[in-house]
Structure formats: C-alpha cells, structure tokens
Amino acid sequence: MSTLSRDDVAHVAMLARIQLSDEELDHLAGQLDQIVGFVASVSEVAAADVPPMSHPLPLRNVTRPDEVRPSLSAEEALAAAPAQDLQRFEVPRILDED
C-alpha cells in the first residue's frame, strides 16, 4: 500500500492551485492515503475475465434531436455585456499563463 506524504499532498494542492494550511495538509495526507488504498483493493478484486464497462446498468440515450430554432443574434446577446471583443464576451483573466 502506498503512503502519501505531506509533500505529495502539497504538490497536488499546488497543481490544483489550492492553498492549504499545515493542519489541512496533515489531515488530507491521511485521508488521501486511505483513498489510494481503497482504489488499490478494488483493483485487486477485478478479474481478467470481467469486461470493463462504463456503467453497471444499461443506459438509454434520452437526449432530444438537435433542431434549428430562432435565437438571439450576436449583437442582441452581447447588448448587455459589460465587456466584449470580436463578438465574444470578454471576461477577466484568471490564469497568469499565456
């Protein structure tokens, strides 16, 4: 069984851009280690003769067919927008990357 350290949890939190306190890192390290253990135990149970599936029950597609219907023009949709650029809504940048 794998053991996740505080550093592992801190690294994952940094990748997810989540700020965690030292207490939260300690607490989550134990919880995430348990979750990894549970997933490993499920992997052990899966047999080679069991086909992979996306869902245990048969699913039926209940979506409606696409139909062209009247809608707003780009100008009408953007009329009340606080900022727009090239017929698109302009929103504040949330990432520093280009």
UniProtKB/TrEMBL annotation:
EC number: 6.3.5.-
Pfam families: GatC
Organism listed in the record: Barrientosiimonas humi
GO annotation terms (biological process): glutaminyl-tRNAGln biosynthesis via transamidation; regulation of translational fidelity; translation
GO molecular function, one term: ATP binding
Domain of life where this protein originates: Bacteria
Protein family (similarity comment): Belongs to the GatC family.
Record has Repressor as a keyword: no
Function: Allows the formation of correctly charged Asn-tRNA(Asn) or Gln-tRNA(Gln) through the transamidation of misacylated Asp-tRNA(Asn) or Glu-tRNA(Gln) in organisms which lack either or both of asparaginyl-tRNA or glutaminyl-tRNA synthetases. The reaction takes place in the presence of glutamine and ATP through an activated phospho-Asp-tRNA(Asn) or phospho-Glu-tRNA(Gln).
Catalytic reactions on record: L-aspartyl-tRNA(Asn) + L-glutamine + ATP + H2O = L-asparaginyl-tRNA(Asn) + L-glutamate + ADP + phosphate + 2 H(+); L-glutamyl-tRNA(Gln) + L-glutamine + ATP + H2O = L-glutaminyl-tRNA(Gln) + L-glutamate + ADP + phosphate + H(+)
Quaternary context: Heterotrimer of A, B and C subunits.
Lineage of the organism: Bacteria, Bacillati, Actinomycetota, Actinomycetes, Micrococcales
SUPFAM superfamilies, per database record: Glu-tRNAGln amidotransferase C subunit
Keywords associated with the record: ATP-binding, Ligase, Nucleotide-binding, Protein biosynthesis, Transferase
InterPro entries: Asp/Glu-ADT_sf_sub_c (IPR036113), GatC (IPR003837)
Name of the protein this chain belongs to: Aspartyl/glutamyl-tRNA(Asn/Gln) amidotransferase subunit C
Keyword Transmembrane: no
